Amino acid sequence: MRHRLLVPAAAAACMVLAIPASAAEPSPGAPGIGDSYYPSYGNGGYDVSHYDLRLKYQPDTDRLEGTATIVARATQNLSRFNLDFALDVESVLVGGKKAAFKATGDHELEITPAGRLDSGKPFTVVVRYHGTPSEVEVGGYTAWLRTPDGGVAANEPEGAWWWYPSNDHPRDKATFDVSVAVPDGTQAISNGTLQSTTSRLGWTRYNWRSDKPQATYLATLAVGKFDVTTDTTAGGLPVINAYSKDLGANDGAARASLERTGEVADWLAGLYGPYPFNALGGYVPNVPTGYALETQTRPFYSPRQFARGANVSVVVHELAHQWYGDSVSLKDWRDIWVNEGFARYSEWLWSEKEGEGTAQELADYTYALYPADDPFWTVRPGDPGAENQFHRAVYDRGALALQALRNEIGDEDFFTILQRWPTEYRYGNASVADFRRFAEKVSGKPLAELFDTWLYTPSKPAAAAARSVALGAPKAPAEPKSWRKIQATNTVHSHGRDAHRGEEHRGH
Ligand SMILES: [Zn+2]
């Protein structure tokens, strides 16, 4: 009797609960997150909070196999949704149940779960996959860097597709556990802290954890034969650096640069507030590229950055990004200035501190270097276009804009802004307009015209507009001592696709 009575009651309760959720019919999540430069990057309809990547990599063959477990929450009633990915998928589970999937476009994985996903509810996706990343081309190139002893994933804005499925846009950040099995004697380097290593049957597994929100392109993986150094900062943070055993003549200069990571980070913390993450370090694999990248907690550096001796300036650049770019990420790839303008300006501040030329001297020299008819001035750092996203002007004119701001509002307000901004938007996203409003709020001055002049006008600002910049400067400013080191970091973000086309930006 009781049993028969309870059944209808339970069924009725379910129906009542089901009504609000069914108010909106489920529909497919958008195949892009809405970026103005890269409409198909990222996806709509859900938000990822954690990636668990369990991988196995064979350096001899470049075969990568893995299981990605993605913890997410639906932001609409979903009938299906996309991940961004380029390797071969074997199976997909959503909520533990088999889901249908198909590859569409050149980097979309379209997933149809067995049942609808309700808005606001958490769900888990398990993707099993494999591939040879160096052989997988999207848009004519692979971002996966093959080395004689392994492979490396570090590129911007595309990097994730070749090693894990994701919602590939900085607007959807998540924490990461990256566990990689490699043959004994080989190392696997990733972000954050090394939680443990285990060895079994000829394979060593490295378990890395990045426990603060991290954009997908800032996750990195390097497999190869590395010499790993460990240390602790004065504040107790672990510093883990890794050097390929194959750096040859660049080995000493690489170490003389990266081993100053703790010192540089402490100096930056004095300017920008407490370091935002759980670990520090960097790695130099034996890649033939020329760029560096601010992969979270553990920047990637090409050996070529150290071909002319130690370059602490590039370390300053990548570590400055930990605050400006990583903790505070851009909202849209159009907002690249909120990353690069500040990373370059940090190099100027380091030069000033080291007595190798003040930021003002570097600004004067930069301003004078490019005549008014140089195409340099046609690139608008505040909205450079996808094709010019990593153009020299985004860096140099981007830093000029900050020097102009400093001269307009004075050192006290300027350095208050630089320190408070990373706290105001910590672990979040911000746009160029957000920065202008923040600077106006702190300084109490209207700054629309200054930002328009330096970031949005496709011509050289007149000497009058640049009055503070050029004030007191000799007609032909002398080259600051730090100039060449800083220009050598111009290969910092040469884009994978540009490198493929042979258009790598180089310092002159
Ligand atoms: Zn940069």
TrEMBL record:
Residues 49-218 form the Aminopeptidase N-like N-terminal domain. Its cofactor is Zn(2+). Residues 1-23 form the signal peptide. The keyword Zinc applies. Keywords: Hydrolase, Metal-binding, Metalloprotease, Protease, Signal, Zinc. It catalyses: Release of an N-terminal amino acid, Xaa-|-Yaa- from a peptide, amide or arylamide. Xaa is preferably Ala, but may be most amino acids including Pro (slow action). When a terminal hydrophobic residue is followed by a prolyl residue, the two may be released as an intact Xaa-Pro dipeptide. Belongs to the peptidase M1 family. This is Aminopeptidase N. It comes from Streptomyces pactum.
